[in-house]
Amino acid sequence: MRTVVVGGGPVGMFCGMALARRGQQVTIVDRDPGPPGTGGWARRGVMQFHHPHFFRSIVRQALLDTLPEAWDAVVAAGGLPARPDGFPEELTGLRCRRSTFERAVWGVARHEPRLAIRTGHADRLITGRGRVTGVIVDGQAIDADLVIVASGRAGRFADDTRPPAEGGACGFSYIARMYRARPGVQAPDSALPMSSLYQGYLAMVFPQDDDTLSALIVRAATDEALAQLRHNACFDELAPRIPQLAPWVDAGRFEPVTDVMAGGHLTNTYRGPSGDGRPAVAGLFFAGDAVCTTNPAAGRGVSLGLRQAQVLIGLLAAPHADLAGAAEEFGAWCVANIQPWYEDHVYWDTTLLRRFHGEGIDLSARIPPDVVCAAAEKDPTIWAAAGPYLAMLAPPAILDTAQDRARAVLRSGWRPPYAAGPSRDELAEHLLPFSRPRLAARQ
Question: What is the C-alpha to C-alpha distance for residues 256 and 264, in angstroms, rounded to an integer?
Fold first, then answer.
């Protein structure tokens, strides 16, 4: 079977290599020519490429199960397997920059028999008699019996073959900057990203490979005052005032290796096939962010994408696989196993945004997932549900079993505490002296 995969990100590369190893002739199409032999890699068109990343244990397990050479290559490139003390081996995640991860995976893909990587823009789908026959790439046709669209959250390929997405903007934006430990300075060795919720914003530190880390501030997308943090001078002024970030942005210990990067237009969306679950065109599949996007602060994107990829590859690799039947089965699986994570994040973000704006927790409504998990601090029995949920080993519905216990904790008067540090309003006040002329002079 001839297969074209549109998109060379983690999900597209996974699908392409996995199908090639099952005997298919695969062409991966991506606008980017891939990593150069040496030097930096811009990876144009992928906003999150240089932004903070942590790869969950799901990613490690998917690679070990299907592409063990890719896992070995990521670790050889400097990726750091990591798990908290006392956690089982199967919960090992990966501290790694997205650029390091993708460079290693592309390196493996380039040596994969039956797999070709073509640089170009996938213009449109070619169909005939209700099924896929190929893809037009930069005006030239590539024949295909199967097309997998893994073009990411900004991709628009074959949009006309399925209904519009559910959802939209998540309500948050973020500002991040990457640092490297100076000689003799110990980089953070936390197995997980370090996070603190302050009044009106969230601060996080992502330990990465090669003695690097990323410092991140999450704000309400409508918060124009904190939006000024996208300027280096503003970030340098305020980040040291935030206790979670202060040790890791200390200029004497850590050197910034990027300018401040803004992450905007963040979405929670779900987009399945047609309403009856059947694809409009036989042989056409969507995977990864083309199906579901979530607020990246929770680090679910690549995990959900590779889960989809594993299931899809299993359906397509079955002997005498019926493409129409595989599409219906895959669509039903996504509804049952991917859509709930989208719905979970919509509710989480909606309620967290209200708390950013000073609203309380509505005890008559469903308790938000982050509050349920925080309530385990007061009632440890909640961990039986919160632990598997946080590790994505169980679906969001597992938190339903802890709703009553979390509500009882809240009715006792307890609330998730804010970390000690400046509030959003205090940060905004510190930003007042940064007029536009002064900013221009200091940049």
Answer: 21
pTM reported for the whole predicted model: 0.95
Among left, alpha and beta (phi > 0; psi -120 to 50; other), residue 378 is alpha
In one-letter notation, the amino acid at residue 295 is: N
Asked whether the beta carbons of 382 and 372 are under 8 A apart, the reply is yes
Among 155, 143, 152, CA closest to 26 = 143
Is residue 351 domain-resident? no
Amino acid in the structure at residue 58: I
User: Helix, strand, or coil here: 186?
Assistant: coil
Q: Tokens 């068109």 identify what position?
A: 45
- The token pair at 304 is 């959900």
- Strands 212-220 and 292-293 come out as unpaired
At 112-144, the pLDDT tens digits run 999 999 999 999 999 999 999 999 999 999 999
110: number of CA atoms within 13 Å, CB side? 13
Task: For residue 280, give the CATH number of its domain.
Answer: 3.50.50.60
Domain span holding position 104: 2-167+267-338
pLDDT band for position 437 (50/70/90)?
Answer: low
Residue type, 406: A
- Domain shared by 247 and 290, yes or no: no
* Structural Rg of the chain based on CA atoms: 22
CA-CA distance, 121 to 348, in Å (whole number)? 36
The domain total for the chain is: 2
| Domain annotation covers residue 373 | no
CATH number at residue 184: 3.30.9.40
Task: Tell me how far apart the alpha carbons of residues 54 and 47 are, in angstroms, rounded to a whole number.
Answer: 16
Say how many CA atoms lie within 13 Å of 251 toward its Cβ: 5
Q: Supply the DSSP string of 162-179, one letter for each residue.
A: SPPPEEEE-SEEEEEEEE
Q: Which residue, among 26, 48, 33, has the nearest Cα to 305 in the 3D structure?
A: 48
Question: What is residue 440's predicted lDDT score, i.e. its pLDDT?
Answer: 53
Q: Which of 226, 225, 231 is nearest to 442 (CA)?
A: 231
**Do 36 and 158 share a structural domain?**
yes
Query: Other CB atoms closer than 10 Å to residue 438's CB: what's the count?
Result: 11
In sequence order, which residues have a C-beta less than 8 Å from that of residue 217 and are 6 or more positions away?
Answer: 174, 175, 176, 201, 202, 203, 204, 226, 229, 239, 242, 245
Please tell me the distance from the alpha carbon of residue 153 to that of residue 167, in angstroms, as a whole number: 13
- Cβ proximity of 343 and 318 under 8 Å: no
Instruction: Count Cβ atoms below 10 Å from residue 43 Cβ, excluding itself.
Output: 21
- Joined together, the tokens standing for residue 443 give 């940049």
Look at the alpha carbons of 76, 94, 66, 152 in this order and tell me if their dihedral is positive or negative. negative
